[in-house]
Automatic annotation (TrEMBL):
Presence of keyword Membrane: no
Official protein name in the record: Peptide deformylase
This protein's record includes keyword Disulfide bond: no
Broadest EC class assigned to this enzyme: hydrolase
Keywords: Hydrolase, Iron, Metal-binding, Protein biosynthesis
Taxonomic source organism: Ciceribacter ferrooxidans
Function comment: Removes the formyl group from the N-terminal Met of newly synthesized proteins. Requires at least a dipeptide for an efficient rate of reaction. N-terminal L-methionine is a prerequisite for activity but the enzyme has broad specificity at other positions.
Enzyme Commission (EC) number: 3.5.1.88
């Protein structure tokens, strides 16, 4: 497994719409394994393929706590089928927006259809942190970042900060 470099804001790739995975093959499974390795190394609890520079509808998640056994989940071509009217708020962060966190309100429960590692369709009923993480990562596949769910002023400040930092690294 290989740890991949993360794409960081303001990279325009993060705003790109990811394309569906046509078939589950060894390349997709290797990418999923590399993404899990990258996510654990970061450390994070979710990672979309676009965050490692691959515009495919693939994401990995593991919301197990540090003191628990790892429970890696792979979602290929995930789509939200239903979301609850009930809302929940979590402090979110993102490996592509390092060291920035903000409270984000999202549906408390979601039902997600996807394909698993074996190429079989699966339906996942999620609530709590898993529901939030799924929504966050599926947003990535659609070119949406968690900062798009906060106030315009805060979002512009974050983008400005990361744009300035990126310019500094380019010199």
């Amino acid at each position: 497994m290989t740890i991949k470099p993360l794409i960081i804001l303001p990279d325009p790739l993060l705003r790109q719409l990811s394309k569906p995975v046509e078939r589950v093959d060894s390349d997709i499974l290797k990418l999923a394994d590399d993404m899990l390795e990258t996510m654990y190394d970061a450390p994070g609890i979710g990672l979309a393929a676009i965050q490692v520079g691959v515009a495919r509808r693939l994401l990995v998640i593991d919301v197990s706590r540090e003191d628990e056994e790892k429970r890696p989940l792979v979602f290929i071509n995930p789509e939200i089928l239903t979301s609850s009217d009930e809302r929940s708020t979590y402090e979110e962060g993102c490996l592509s927006i390092p060291d920035y966190y903000a409270e984000v309100e999202r549906p408390a429960k979601v039902t997600v259809r996807s394909i698993d590692r074996e190429g079989k369709e699966q339906t996942t009923e999620a609530e709590g942190l898993l529901a939030t993480c799924l929504q966050h990562e599926i947003d990535h596949l659609n070119g949406v970042l968690f900062i798009d769910h906060i106030s315009r002023l805060k979002r512009e400040m974050v983008i400005k900060k990361f744009t300035k930092a990126a310019r500094g690294k380019a010199i």
